[in-house]
Amino acid sequence: MDIQFRSIKKQDIENLIQMCAEIGYEVRYETLSAKINEIIKNKNSVILVAADEENKPAGWIQLEISNFIFSEKTCNILALFVDKKYRGRRIGKKLLSKAEEWAKENNCTGLEIYSDITRIDSHDFYRHLDFKHIKTQQTFFRSIKFRDKP
Fold it and tell me: What's the gap between Cα 144 and its chain centre?
């Protein structure tokens, strides 16, 4: 199987919607399309796609530069996904390698990923690729309320 790596394209949206649903995230076409447009325009973020022989996504990784004033400039892996029919073919490892190349091009000092505590298989995968568990934390969220516009 020949896998090519490239940036995301508009024609990938339907496949990404199906992949997101596979892991429990329901995403509407319009929402994902708008988000991808924003990511394409933003030089500090990218979605890299592993495309199969038919140029359809077999997997993808979303990256964003993090430049907190209190730490080194890093590349955050916001999402990494390989379609279950392509797993076990080192696509995830290759996507992480492409992520590292992109991070180096953007002068980042490392790759960082947050993974839910229940994703034990993912934790093992990252450890196997020399990622170190550096912190356990809790996530907090507060909705922002908007006033109706006239």
Answer: 25
